[in-house]
Amino acid sequence: MSTLPPLAGRRCHNAVNPLHSTVYFSPDLGKELGELGIDDSNAAYFAARGAALGAVGPGTVTATFYNFNRDLVARHLPAVWSVASPEAVLEARLRAVDTTLRRLLGPEIIDSAELAEAAELALRAAEACTRHARPLYAAHADLPVPERPHLAYWHAATLLREHRGDGHLAALLAAGLDPVEALASHTATGKGMSPRWVLATRGWRRNDWEDATERLRGRGLLDGEGELTEAGVALRAELEDVTDRMDAAPYEHLGAEGVARLTELARGFLFTAASAGAFPADLIGKS
C-alpha cells in the first residue's frame, strides 16, 4: 500500500520531467553536435538521446523510443556514429545542458541552495529505480553523476524520466496501442503533441495518422470528431494508472515530505524555464 497522497508521484514526475526535455528544444544542442559534424536535427536527436545505449542501430532506437517511424531512424543510424562516437555525443549533450539551463534559469537559480537541494532529492528518488526491462533508464543509470548541482539535477531528471517512460511503453503494449495510435490517442487528451509536431518529427505521414485514428474509432476509443469516447478516456486514464504503479518505487523511497518538496522546487524551476521560452508555443494541442 502506498504511503504517498494520491497521484503524488505523477505530479512530481510532471514537474521534474519537462526540464529534462529542454535540451532537445535548445539551439545549444544543435550547436554542440554541429561542431561534431552532426548537422541534421533528427540525427542530432537520435544521437543525443540514444548515445547512452552505445553505437546502436535503428532497431534498438526504434524499440526504445517507440513512437518513431523506423525508416526515419534508419536514415541516420548507425551512420551517425561514423561522424561522432557515443562518448563524444554524451559530452556534447552535457555541454548543451549546461548552457541551456544557465540561459533558462539564470545565475541566481543555478547557484542556489534550492537547486542543490532538488538535485539531492531527485538523486535520492532515483536510487530506487530498477534496471530490469528498462533499457533507456538502465543505459543512463550507468553514466556518472555530474558534479555541478544543475547538471546533477538534469541527470536525475533524466533517470526518473526514462524510468517512467520505459514502464509507460510496457503499458502501451499491454493496451494494444501501436506507435501512431499511442500518439493520436494522447493528442486527443489535449495534453499530447499536436499532429503538426508529430508529423514533423516522428517520421509518420498524414495518412499514417488518419489510418491510426480510424483504427481507434473502430475500437470505440475515438468518436467521429476525433475526440476521445468514454472508453477512450478510460483507457488513457488506465494507462497512466498502470504507469504510476510501475513507477511508484522512486517516490515511495523518497517519502511524502521529500516528494512534496521536490515537486515544489521543480515547479518553480519549470515555470522559470517555460517563461524564458524553453518550449515551442505550438507543441501541445489537438490541431
Question: Secondary structure elements and their pairing?
Answer:
Elements: H1 8-21, H2 27-35, H3 41-50, H4 58-65, H5 70-74, H6 86-110, H7 113-126, H8 135-141, H9 149-175, H10 179-188, H11 195-201, H12 206-218, H13 230-246, H14 248-275
Helix pairs in contact: 1-9, 1-14, 2-6, 6-9, 6-14, 7-9, 7-14, 8-9, 9-13, 10-12
Q: Tell me, rounded to a whole number, the average pLDDT.
A: 97
Helix/strand-derived class? mainly alpha
Contiguous runs where pLDDT drops below 50 for at least 5 residues: none
Helix content: 55-70%
* Termini Cα gap: 40 Å
Rg over C-alpha atoms, rounded to the nearest angstrom: 19 Å
Number of strands: 0
Strand content: under 5%
> Biggest sheet, in brief?
none
Please tell me what the overall shape is: globular
Q: Output the helix-strand order.
A: HHHHHHHHHHHHHH
Tally of helical segments: 14
3D structure, described in words:
The protein has 287 residues and is mainly α. Helices cover 68% and strands 0% of the residues.
Considering the chains and any ligands shown, give keywords for the structure.
287 residues, mainly alpha, 14 helices
Give a short synopsis of this structure.
With 287 residues, the protein is an all-alpha fold.
